[in-house]
Protein backbone atom coordinates (compact mmCIF):
# COMPACT_ATOMS: atom_id res chain seq x y z
CA UNK A 1 0.00 0.00 0.00
CA UNK A 2 1.52 3.30 -1.12
CA UNK A 3 0.90 6.39 0.98
CA UNK A 4 2.28 9.90 1.51
CA UNK A 5 5.50 8.61 3.09
CA UNK A 6 6.52 6.86 -0.14
CA UNK A 7 6.47 9.75 -2.63
CA UNK A 8 8.51 12.96 -2.95
CA UNK A 9 6.85 15.83 -1.11
CA UNK A 10 7.31 18.37 -3.92
CA UNK A 11 5.48 16.22 -6.45
CA UNK A 12 2.69 15.42 -4.00
CA UNK A 13 2.17 19.03 -2.93
CA UNK A 14 2.17 20.23 -6.55
CA UNK A 15 -0.40 17.64 -7.64
CA UNK A 16 -2.54 18.23 -4.56
CA UNK A 17 -2.49 22.00 -5.13
CA UNK A 18 -3.83 21.47 -8.65
CA UNK A 19 -6.58 19.23 -7.31
CA UNK A 20 -7.50 21.75 -4.60
CA UNK A 21 -7.83 24.50 -7.24
CA UNK A 22 -10.66 22.48 -8.77
CA UNK A 23 -12.61 22.09 -5.51
CA UNK A 24 -15.89 23.92 -5.37
CA UNK A 25 -15.96 26.66 -2.73
CA UNK A 26 -12.19 26.76 -2.32
CA UNK A 27 -10.81 30.04 -3.61
CA UNK A 28 -8.04 32.47 -2.90
CA UNK A 29 -9.23 35.67 -1.17
CA UNK A 30 -8.57 39.03 -2.81
CA UNK A 31 -6.15 40.13 -0.13
CA UNK A 32 -3.92 37.07 -0.58
CA UNK A 33 -2.10 38.71 -3.50
CA UNK A 34 -0.85 41.55 -1.31
CA UNK A 35 -0.11 39.90 2.02
CA UNK A 36 3.15 38.51 3.38
CA UNK A 37 3.14 34.99 4.81
CA UNK A 38 4.40 36.19 8.20
CA UNK A 39 6.38 38.90 9.98
CA UNK A 40 9.62 37.10 9.13
CA UNK A 41 9.02 37.47 5.38
CA UNK A 42 10.29 40.59 3.65
CA UNK A 43 8.04 40.37 0.59
CA UNK A 44 4.89 38.75 -0.69
CA UNK A 45 5.23 35.26 -2.24
CA UNK A 46 6.47 35.11 -5.84
CA UNK A 47 4.16 32.25 -6.78
CA UNK A 48 0.71 33.50 -7.74
CA UNK A 49 -0.88 30.20 -6.63
CA UNK A 50 0.80 30.14 -3.22
CA UNK A 51 -2.59 29.89 -1.46
CA UNK A 52 -3.29 26.48 -2.97
CA UNK A 53 0.28 25.30 -2.40
CA UNK A 54 -0.01 26.27 1.27
CA UNK A 55 -3.33 24.41 1.52
CA UNK A 56 -1.74 21.28 0.02
CA UNK A 57 1.20 21.58 2.40
CA UNK A 58 -1.18 21.94 5.35
CA UNK A 59 -3.01 18.77 4.35
CA UNK A 60 0.28 16.88 4.07
CA UNK A 61 1.38 18.10 7.51
CA UNK A 62 -1.93 17.02 9.03
CA UNK A 63 -1.56 13.58 7.40
CA UNK A 64 1.96 13.07 8.71
CA UNK A 65 1.86 14.67 12.15
CA UNK A 66 -1.60 13.93 13.45
CA UNK A 67 -3.80 16.45 15.23
CA UNK A 68 -2.18 19.89 14.99
CA UNK A 69 -3.36 23.14 16.47
CA UNK A 70 -3.18 26.56 14.90
CA UNK A 71 -0.12 27.57 16.93
CA UNK A 72 1.74 24.42 15.82
CA UNK A 73 1.08 25.27 12.18
CA UNK A 74 2.03 28.92 12.65
CA UNK A 75 5.31 27.83 14.20
CA UNK A 76 6.11 25.43 11.37
CA UNK A 77 5.44 28.07 8.69
CA UNK A 78 7.50 30.70 10.48
CA UNK A 79 11.12 31.63 9.96
CA UNK A 80 13.99 33.67 11.31
CA UNK A 81 14.03 37.45 11.26
CA UNK A 82 17.09 39.65 11.57
CA UNK A 83 16.64 42.36 14.21
CA UNK A 84 19.18 45.09 13.32
CA UNK A 85 22.50 44.03 14.86
CA UNK A 86 21.00 41.50 17.28
CA UNK A 87 21.04 37.76 16.53
CA UNK A 88 18.22 36.37 14.43
CA UNK A 89 15.07 35.21 16.23
CA UNK A 90 12.25 32.92 15.19
CA UNK A 91 8.94 34.52 14.19
CA UNK A 92 5.76 32.53 13.68
CA UNK A 93 4.04 32.51 10.32
CA UNK A 94 0.87 34.47 9.67
CA UNK A 95 -2.10 33.02 11.52
CA UNK A 96 -4.75 34.54 9.27
CA UNK A 97 -3.48 32.62 6.23
CA UNK A 98 -3.47 29.30 8.05
CA UNK A 99 -6.81 29.92 9.74
CA UNK A 100 -8.62 30.87 6.53
CA UNK A 101 -7.18 27.90 4.63
CA UNK A 102 -8.24 25.55 7.43
CA UNK A 103 -11.77 27.00 7.36
CA UNK A 104 -12.00 26.41 3.62
CA UNK A 105 -10.68 22.86 4.00
CA UNK A 106 -13.27 22.23 6.73
CA UNK A 107 -16.05 23.47 4.44
CA UNK A 108 -14.77 21.10 1.74
CA UNK A 109 -14.95 18.30 4.38
CA UNK A 110 -11.25 17.46 4.05
CA UNK A 111 -10.26 18.58 7.56
CA UNK A 112 -12.12 18.22 10.86
CA UNK A 113 -11.75 20.00 14.18
CA UNK A 114 -11.20 17.95 17.35
CA UNK A 115 -10.42 18.98 20.94
CA UNK A 116 -6.74 18.12 20.36
CA UNK A 117 -6.46 19.99 17.04
CA UNK A 118 -7.27 19.62 13.38
CA UNK A 119 -7.13 16.23 11.66
CA UNK A 120 -7.77 14.94 8.16
CA UNK A 121 -11.14 13.38 7.51
CA UNK A 122 -11.36 10.01 5.75
CA UNK A 123 -12.19 11.92 2.56
CA UNK A 124 -8.98 13.97 2.88
CA UNK A 125 -6.89 10.92 3.70
CA UNK A 126 -8.31 9.06 0.70
CA UNK A 127 -7.50 12.02 -1.55
CA UNK A 128 -3.87 12.04 -0.42
CA UNK A 129 -3.51 8.27 -0.69
CA UNK A 130 -5.00 8.22 -4.19
CA UNK A 131 -2.66 10.98 -5.36
CA UNK A 132 0.31 9.21 -3.77
CA UNK A 133 -0.57 6.01 -5.59
CA UNK A 134 -0.78 7.85 -8.91
CA UNK A 135 2.55 9.62 -8.38
CA UNK A 136 4.23 6.38 -7.33
CA UNK A 137 3.02 4.53 -10.43
CA UNK A 138 4.30 7.35 -12.66
CA UNK A 139 7.67 7.14 -10.88
CA UNK A 140 7.85 3.36 -11.32
CA UNK A 141 7.26 3.68 -15.06
CA UNK A 142 10.54 5.55 -15.32
CA UNK A 143 12.43 3.29 -12.91
CA UNK A 144 11.37 -0.36 -12.77
CA UNK A 145 13.51 -0.99 -9.65
CA UNK A 146 11.03 1.09 -7.60
CA UNK A 147 8.10 -1.16 -8.54
CA UNK A 148 8.95 -3.73 -5.89
CA UNK A 149 8.36 -1.14 -3.12
CA UNK A 150 4.75 -0.46 -4.15
Can you tell me the CATH topology? Answer: Arc Repressor Mutant, subunit A
Number of domains: 1
Mean pLDDT: 90
Q: Please identify the top-level CATH class.
A: Mainly Alpha
Which value, in Å, is the CA radius of gyration?
A: 17 Å
- What count of helical segments does DSSP give? 5
Largest sheet: 2 strands, antiparallel
- Give the strand order of the largest sheet, numbering strands 1, 2, ... along the chain: 1-2
Task: Report a brief summary of the structure.
The protein is of the alpha+beta class. The protein has helices at residues 9-21, 50-65, 70-76, 95-107, 122-142; strands at residues 79-83, 86-91, 111-114, 117-120. The strands form 2 sheets. A two-stranded antiparallel sheet has the order 1-2. Strands 3-4 form a two-stranded antiparallel ribbon.
